[in-house]
Amino acid sequence: MMTALLRWFDRTILELGREMRLSYLPPLMVYVAAGVSGLTGIVGTFFVKDYLGLSASFLAALGFWAGIPWALKMPIGHLVDLLWRHKAGLVYLGASLIAASLLIMIGLIGNPTAMRQVMSAEAWFVLSALLAPIGYVMQDAVADAMTVEAVPRLDEDGNPFPDETVRLMHTTMQMLGRVAIIGGTVLVSLANVAMFQGSETLPEADKVAIYVHIYELALLIPLLSVSGVLLAGGLKRREARRLARLGHDAATIDRLVHAPEQATTPNWWILGGSAAFVALTLAVGLSGLGYGQELIFGASFVIIGVMIFRLLRELSDDARRTLLGTIIVIFVFRAMPGPGAGASWWMIDELGFDQSFLSRLDLITSTLTLAGLFLFRRFMAEKSIAHIVVFLTVASTLLSLPILGMFHGMHEWTAAATGGLVDARFIAIANTALESPLGQVSMVPMLAWIANSAPSHLKATFFAVMASFTNLALSASQLGTKYLNEIYTITREVRDAASGAVTVAANYAELGQLLAMVLLLGLTLPLLAIATTRLLGLRSA
């Protein structure tokens, strides 16, 4: 038994460490910055709840607009392929936008009076919420390209690596990328636990000071991603010197270090379709047209679908069927709606979950998600996306039941039966501990398949188009969340900032029906998508 456990630990944990290379570090630094981006999440939740009069459906709609930049990852990724030598500039631009978003929130929380003299607090918040994802998508597109670049082509003696070794290195790189992102969330959770320790007893002014300090700490995020790009430049120069010592000429060194194996030419379908998408998004967004979000989503779906069709022509017939089946299953799985902000408000108001407890809950989530990546490493490598999604769908449904049960008073019954031990917080922690390891399991196999199977001169483009499609699923999720919040109305108490009078009363009566509908949709639709791909004769990675 002990021998088998040690063998599993060696294959699952130690083997990943042995496969780590210094060249993997630059993209991992950018991915860590993406993980650390959640540092302000708890602050944002409480700030919106306590200081802004935004409804749950409006926040879901804002989530839709904030997700639109991720659909623009498609032209950005292609731009990375076209400007391979100069892609670091996109990271610098993205870092600037992220810093601007954070500075807005620092001013809005720390000096709201001065900020309101320019625009309303709600308008500033919306601007900040839209700037940040544009910055992150730019950095993410470059990081994806850097993961391909980070896998070396030649060994220490200057000989090409075998294909099997290259495939293993790509899988390891993508796995480490997920580890870096989740590792960033662990760091965030630790910081929040430390910052919010004992905050439940502090006066409001001291809580606001903590909020400001957390946003100030978040300014390290753009510095981290920029540092990753600078390190990548240094490693390239070192590799060029190594190849020169091995006797390679300048042209070969330039091809191996700075350029892809095949030159990338502009794909006008991608660039033209993306330009049409941007124009349509801006026109509809600024016009205030009814059903604008639905129109943009439909147009985005068509444009990205055409881009995928064009890119599928670059693959073999078997690879086309595999990729098409994979993205259908992943899209539906990620498009499932959630309960929205109302569920968080209910936990804060009715269950008494404060900043300190939520930060500890986030720490548990992040730590166990990171552990889950290692725990399910072989499962992800050996099972198809369809098998993984079936497992995740059933598991997620079962793990959603305790929250629905608590709405109907389950925690009161369990607390009474256990002398107060199994209360709402105990159930939330236990549920989080079980659900957290499942968070990132579905994406790693698809990313590894793209890294290994996409044409070498279109790696970033393939990553970007597939990411745009799967991120479009998150926009569909936000639309579904908005619709459900319009059907089942959830409101928290809103007070006038000047008089303190209640302008909107708290009402969580329909939350139970909302949670039940989310659970039902999340169970049935992914399984139906898998069955449909099987009937169409499609495979999954």
Automatic annotation (TrEMBL):
Top-rank lineage group of the source organism: Bacteria
Transmembrane regions: 28-48, 54-76, 88-109, 175-196, 208-235, 268-289, 295-312, 324-345, 357-376, 388-407, 514-536
Location of the protein in the cell: Membrane
UniProt keyword list: Membrane, Transmembrane, Transmembrane helix, Transport
Membrane topology summary: Multi-pass membrane protein
InterPro entries given in the database record: BT1
Protein name per the record: Folate/biopterin family MFS transporter
